[in-house]
Known about the structure:
This protein is an alpha+beta fold.
Amino acid sequence: MHLLNERARAERIQTGETSAEQDVALTDDARASEGDLVITRRNARALRTGRDGWVRNGDRWKVTDVRSDGSIKVQRHGRRRGASVVLPSEYVGEHVELGYAVTAHRSQGMTVDTAHVVITGGTTRENLYVAMTRGREANMGYVALDRPDGLHVPPRADDIDAVVVLYGVLNHTGSELSAHQTIAAEQDQWSGIAQVAAEYETIATAATLERYEAIVRDGLRGAGLGAAVVADVIASDAFGSLAAEMRRAESGGADLPTLMSEAVGRRRLDDADDVAAVLHYRLGRAVADLALDPELIVGMTPAVAVDLADDVRAALDERRDLMEARARSLAVTAVRSGEAWVRSLGQEPSLPDQQVRWLRNVEIVASYRDRYGITSDAPLGVEPTTIARRRDAAHAAAAARNAVALADTLDDQLDDALASGLELG
C-alpha cells in the first residue's frame, strides 16, 4: 500500500493536483502537501468539524494547507464547503496516512469515483465484493499472477492465469463458520474428489517413480543425451506431470519404453528450456494419436496398471473406492433432488441396463464438478484454461453427451413401444 500511495502522490504532483512545495511527515515515513488526499486513523472527538462533526478513524480528507509547525488543515473529501479541521502535528505524525490506496477492509463505507482493485490469491470473496463496489463510475480489477496462496489448490506455474486466481478467490471465504459448519466443511474437503485424487496421485507417483525415471533415463541416453540432461529432467517441476502422462499411457496398454523413445527422438531436445515439459507434451500427443483408452477412475484419474507391493496397492484401492463412492453419492443426490445441471442431461432411463449406463455418465460429470468446485447450473461450469482441466473437461463432456444420448434413446424406445402396443422388456 505504501508504494501505491507514493506512486499516486508522485503522479498528482506531476499533474499539479498536489503541491510540490512545503510538505509534512505522516505515519509510515510518508509525506503530504497541499492537494493530497489523506485518511485519519484514530478517533479524536476533541477535533471538531462543526456543531456535530468530529475526526473519525477511516475518514478521508483533502489537505488544504500545510503549516510550519507540522499541523495541516484538511477538508472532508468530496465536500466543497465546511467540514474542515486543523490536525495537530502530533496527530498528523502518528495517525494520518496517504489516502490513495487502502485495504479492502479499510475501504468499507468509502465511496470513490473509480476503484482500482489489486486481486491476489489471498483475497477473500468478501473483501473482493467490498473492494469492487466502492466506485461510483467504474470498478477495475487487476489480478496478480505472481503471488500463489497456500489456501487454494496450487496449479503449475504455467497454468496460472486470471481465471485460476479469481476462481480461488471466489472459493476463499473469510467469514466465520459455526462449529457444525466447520465440521461439515472439513469432512467435505477431506472426502472430496480433489483431495482423494491428490492422495492417489501422490501414492502412485511415489510407487512408480523409480521405474518411470529408468524409462526416461533409457530413452534420453538412447538419443545420445548425457547425464546432465537426465538429471535436469528428473529434477524438473514438470516431471510429476510427465509421470502422470506415462501412467495414463500405460493404463491404456501402451508400450511405454517404446513410446518414450519415440517421444525423445521426434525432434532435438538440446535447445529446450525444460526437457521434461517437452516430453510431457509429446507423450500426450502420442497417447491422443494412438487413441488409447486408459482406465480412468471416475473419468479423470488414470489408474496404476503395473504390479505393486500389497500395501501400496491396498492404499490405492482404498482411495479408488472412496472416489467411486463419492461420485456415486453426488450423482444419486443430484438426480433425486432434481438439480438443474442433471436435468440438462436428459430424463433418467427406466430400462435397468440403460439406467446403469446413464447414471455412470452422470457420476463422471458429478466427479468433475466436485473436483473443480463447480456450483453453477451448467454441467461443466466455465471454459477450462489449464491443460489438465481441459483434458478432464473433455472426458466429462463426453460423459454428458453419452448421458443425453441414452436419455434420448429411451424416449425413442418409449415412443416406438407406445405406437406398436408392445411392452418394453
